[in-house]
Write a structure and sequence with these properties.
mainly alpha; about 80% helix; about 0% strand; elongated
Length: about 160
């Protein structure tokens, strides 16, 4: 009985840590999934089909994933660099002129490219948050099992 009682305070601490890990893990999972879904919905509203096969685009497929956004962003970068390799070379030492169609096309391409690369980053972050949440839940379950073992006096 004395052996069991010496593990009870430790068992309680470990169980508290288990609950905290589980709660934080669930919050991470929910946040990651809801933000990823929100990003997909926002991208679907934009109806970007660059890089999507025509047959798929005709069926309503649009850019709404990290890999599709990466491919579309890379394609836009290629096209933008066809106008000018760099922003500095586009301006040629001058200033941006919004009435110049070449300047305007370059700026619009740069904006779209940044939007798509930001989506790639966002999907990567949500994937990391989801993975972290899963790891925290697994850790919480392991800590809970450890707490139960300690409480039963099977720690050593």
């Amino acid at each position: 009985m004395a052996r069991l009682s010496r593990y009870l305070p430790l068992s309680r601490i470990v169980m508290i840590m288990a609950v905290v890990a589980l709660v934080i893990g669930i919050v991470f999972l929910v946040q990651g999934v809801t933000k990823a879904d929100w990003m997909k919905d926002a991208m679907r509203i934009e109806q970007i089909t660059l890089g999507i096969e025509q047959s798929a685009a005709a069926k309503g497929e649009v850019v709404d994933s990290a890999s599709e956004a990466q491919h579309a962003g890379d394609t836009i970068r290629e096209h933008r660099q066809g106008i000018a390799p760099t922003y500095e070379e586009l301006l040629g030492g001058g200033r941006f002129d919004p009435t110049n169609p070449e300047h305007l096309s370059y700026a619009q391409a740069l904006n779209m490219e940044n939007y798509l690369y930001l989506a790639v980053l966002g999907f990567g972050v949500t994937d990391m948050v989801i993975a972290s949440g899963g790891f925290m839940i697994a850790t919480g379950i392991a800590l809970a099992a450890t707490s139960v073992a300690l409480r039963r006096g099977k720690a050593g």
